[in-house]
Amino acid sequence: MRLPPLLDPAQRHVLRARLAAQLVTQLADAPPHALISLTLTLGEGHCRWLDARLDDQHAFWWARPDTDEWRLALGQAMIVTSAGPNRFTALQAAFAGISADWRHHARDCGDSGNSAARRLPAAHLGFAFDDEAQDDLPNARLIVPAVLLVSRGGKITATFSCPAREGEAAVDAWLDTLRRSFVAIPNSAAGTAHRPPNLPPQRQPAPLDDRAFLARVTAALAEIASGRVRKLVVSRRVRLRAKQPIALAPVLAAFAERHPACTVYAVTRPGMAFIGATPERLIALDDGIARADALAGTAWAAPEVAALRTGEAAPTESFALDDDKNSREQGLVVDAVRSALAPLCQTLEQAAAPEVLRLRDLQHLRTQFAGHVRTGVDLFDLIAALHPTPAVGGTPSLAAQRWLRAHRDTRPAWFTGGVGWIDAGGNGEVVVALRCARISGGFADCYAGVGIVPGSRPEQEFAETEIKLTAALDALQCRPHPALESAPTPRTGT
Ligand SMILES: C=C(O[C@H]1C=CC=C(C(=O)O)[C@@H]1O)C(=O)O
């Protein structure tokens, strides 16, 4: 849809006047260290924010298409980064400091009455799988954006934030951020429909990487047989190359259209973007109720994929979802999530049996947990207790992480880490960064991992990664593997 009128360059003077008036009022009694946020209602409608220039600036884009929630965070009012074993505690302390004097003024949208404004203002956060990882995104990061645009349930808001010491100069900085973000696309443009689509990138064959993955799965099975670990999650990368820089908006639009029940996310900085559509919630906290998923075990309906690339006699179909191997794989995640949450919750409930989560190309087993958290427990405590679950690391967790480091199963950017947001009241949600790609210029690296337990077979696990990679490959319009072109994949589920 069109951008809300207040974001139209022709209306900027109105926006400027409203922001300046509210900021002056807030500054009157604020100490310099206070964080000030102003939320304006921009009207009714649905905005996916894909008109924004995401490709060449620091931004965070997040969508839950099926609940009509679309967020775009631009710029930085406050930023905290961290790494190492205490990284979540460091973010927690920083967030406590920020929220101790976070002043919020919500004009025309009464914090409690308007669902679009209820979870505002907010920070966004993300972290790598491994607390020692060093990559082109900080290991762990929390940002209160300068501008946060939210379209949720038909209501659109904009929240502007700055440290009080910035004073009235913040208004021009906010308007500059908006100008830079929406400058190239006239207000009349209707989202990505007017943008040229990306030309399909080519998949770069990497037979050595493929063999290394198969060898890692075999080594993981040997480690499991030794009794030192019970489960390991092994991952691989597929590289795509395009003739021109890959534009993000069409890829995000495709992710959102094909995976509406997933969380679609993009974390960008100049020259690089990390994007994906994940089905897995790590944790959500809402008014003292924590919700978490134990997601693992995979089945798919494309037997042809199983014989790809390895050229060996391979199983021709996936394990049934209720097969012992899948149940074991998911059961270990259920046990770990329960053990992590139980000490932090007064009550904890879990579904009696796993449900089937049907996605576009595959299916998973999922057990949902819900519990009342104990007094004083916050989102960071919950993240620290849960991450990494055996859905992305292994069991026992520390032994699995040691093995993955030793076997160079590195997880670039925030793959198998987390991305999410937290509002000023401590409510928030973090998803596990899966089904993703790191895009840089004309290159896209797509990632997928698989849980290895007794009974896993290397070729079949390879096939499972191919199926998981389909989400990113499809969104990037990469042509399917030749072996799949002649045999269309039967779709199951939605
Ligand atoms: C690690 C990934 O998926 C996890 C989540 C669901 C099912 C999984 C599995 O069946 O192996 C994985 O544990 C990935 O998609 O890269």
From TrEMBL:
Q: Which EC number(s) does UniProt give?
A: 5.4.4.2
**Gene3D superfamilies tied to this protein:** Anthranilate synthase (3.60.120.10)
Q: Name one GO molecular function term.
A: isochorismate synthase activity
Kindly state which reaction or reactions the protein catalyses: chorismate = isochorismate
List residues of the Chorismate-utilising enzyme C-terminal domain: 211-468
Q: Which InterPro entries match?
A: ADC_synthase, Chorismate_C, IsoChor_synthase
Q: Which domain of life is it from?
A: Bacteria
Q: Name one Pfam family in it.
A: Chorismate_bind
Q: Which UniProt keywords apply?
A: Isomerase
- Supply the PANTHER family for this chain: ISOCHORISMATE SYNTHASE ENTC
Protein family: Belongs to the isochorismate synthase family.
Record's protein name: isochorismate synthase
Taxonomy of origin reads: Bacteria, Pseudomonadati, Pseudomonadota, Betaproteobacteria, Rhodocyclales
